[in-house]
């Protein structure tokens, strides 16, 4: 582990489908049936972002995090079933691959969802070791499903691997393991952190939790603990698991703990499938929509004596910014690829001075698959397709809807007719983005719904 502030250690914990309104520090907690004391305490120790934005689905968000690029560029447009091409090509330069070039050691414990064939597993893409699931959690229901035909599908497995060696299956990922996996992942991360204490190298730990993705089932130790059902029990467990990682970090040498950046965030907006339906708090919508409830998710950043404690900000940050900012903090900004468009903006100065500095990001374009759904600029949101609930789309709007997200957080009252001036900066953003897409065409999906075929890559 590193005690050099120019090469800080980095822990990134990513929850799965945690809505903006679930945690106590975001207005949820007990109101959602489960207190979240550990994450709430963590929020008081760092910077809580109210306007942290992601992509529409698990694969698009995770690809944006690892590449710093919108999925419309990389072709990682949506989650697809096993057996179909998916994930990031070898041509894309991933976060851990770049960190390796400046001496970092990296581990992945959790959900990957960016490639499920040799050459695309985490240990093939810059992580020194990994343990977890290559795709997604709903596959844990397969073996319990009525009429399941195992010979017709690829079985879901928990897997593990090390750089330079083939990844291998550990066990079938079924409903029993669904309840146990987050506990196992925490033990893997704790063991790895302990080993790094002796290595004296800066580290990057990526710990993508399985909670709260459906089926949202708690570990047996947490069943019934809240009295408010399995979703609330799972929230209590998730909070506890985050606390376990933070507690273990505290057991390490003081200079190392002080020199470790911890980021907690979510990959998508809340679950919409009953009985595991989540909430986005004051916002409307869930993942798979372009509503604020899909875009905005929790994100908290802590770095003792560098990022101010107990600060809340509504400045716009995007998931791609984590890519560029982490590399900047690690002293690797000169290694950010220059031969492709990187959408991530370095947010280091803002993170260090959130009370006096503005985010350098004004907004972004929001695609679902190949379709531009909305443009977000400052406090304004322009919808080209209006879909407040999944599968309830208006279709393409002849006259787009415009909302002010401060005055109308539910995005209910179109005010474009009185604010057509806003079209100028928004459509300039779109024009510039369109030019960049023509300069570097999107990777082509081989199956029409996801995956990538790219002449620049053998995988």
Automatic annotation (TrEMBL):
Record key words, sorted: Calcium, Hydrolase, Metal-binding, Signal
Q: Which cofactor does it need?
A: Ca(2+)
Q: Where is the signal peptide?
A: none
Asked whether the keyword RNA-binding is assigned, the reply is no
GO molecular function list = arylsulfatase activity; metal ion binding
Cell inner membrane as a keyword of this entry, yes or no, is no
Under the heading CDD domains, the entry gives: ARS_like (cd16142)
**Limits of the Sulfatase N-terminal domain:** 8-332
Family per UniProt? Belongs to the sulfatase family.
Name by which UniProt lists this protein: Sulfatase N-terminal domain-containing protein
Originating species:
Exophiala bonariae
Source taxonomy: Eukaryota, Fungi, Dikarya, Ascomycota, Pezizomycotina
């Amino acid at each position: 582990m590193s005690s050099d502030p120019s090469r800080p250690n980095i822990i990134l914990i990513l929850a799965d489908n945690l809505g903006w309104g679930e945690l106590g520090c975001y207005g949820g907690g007990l109101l959602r049936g489960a207190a979240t004391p550990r994450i709430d305490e963590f929020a008081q120790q760092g910077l809580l972002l109210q306007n942290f934005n992601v992509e529409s689905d698990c694969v698009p968000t995770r690809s944006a995090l690892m590449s710093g690029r919108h999925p419309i560029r990389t072709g990682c447009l949506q989650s697809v079933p096993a057996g179909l091409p998916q994930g990031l090509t070898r041509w894309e330069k991933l976060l851990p691959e770049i960190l390796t070039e400046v001496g970092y050691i990296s581990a992945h414990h959790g959900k990957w969802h960016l490639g499920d064939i040799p050459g695309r597993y985490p240990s093939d893409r810059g992580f020194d070791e990994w343990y977890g699931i290559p795709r997604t959690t709903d596959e844990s229901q397969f073996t319990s499903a009525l009429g399941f035909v195992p010979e017709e599908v690829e079985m879901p497995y928990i897997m593990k691997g090390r750089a330079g060696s083939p990844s291998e299956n550990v066990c079938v990922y079924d409903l029993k393991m669904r309840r146990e996996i987050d506990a196992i992942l925490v033990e893997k991360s704790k063991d790895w952190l302990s080993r790094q204490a002796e290595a004296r190298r800066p580290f990057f730990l990526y710990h993508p939790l399985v909670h709260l993705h459906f089926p949202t089932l708690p570990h047996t130790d947490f069943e019934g603990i809240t009295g408010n059902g399995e979703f609330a029990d799972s929230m209590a467990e998730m909070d506890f698991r985050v606390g376990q990682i933070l507690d273990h970090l505290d057991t390490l040498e003081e200079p190392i703990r002080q020199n470790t950046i911890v980021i907690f965030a979510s990959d998508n907006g809340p679950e919409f499938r009953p009985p595991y339906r989540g909430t986005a708090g004051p916002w409307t919508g869930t993942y798979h929509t372009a509503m604020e409830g899909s875009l905005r998710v929790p994100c908290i950043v802590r770095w003792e004596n560098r990022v101010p404690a107990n600060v809340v900000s509504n400045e716009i940050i995007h998931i791609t910014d984590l890519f560029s900012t982490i590399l900047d903090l690690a002293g690797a900004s000169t290694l950010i690829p220059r031969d492709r468009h990187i959408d991530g903006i370095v947010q280091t100065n803002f993170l260090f001075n959130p009370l006096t500095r503005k985010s350098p990001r004004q907004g972004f374009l929001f695609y679902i698959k190949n379709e531009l759904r909305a443009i977000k600029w400052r406090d304004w949101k322009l919808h080209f397709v209006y879909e407040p609930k999944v599968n309830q789309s208006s279709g393409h709007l002849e006259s787009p809807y415009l909302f002010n997200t401060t005055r109308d957080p539910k995005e209910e009252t179109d005010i474009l007719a009185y604010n057509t001036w806003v079209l100028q900066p928004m459509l300039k953003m779109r024009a510039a983005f369109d030019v960049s897409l023509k300069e570097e065409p999107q990777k082509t999906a081989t199956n029409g719904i996801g995956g990538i075929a790219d002449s620049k890559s053998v995988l």
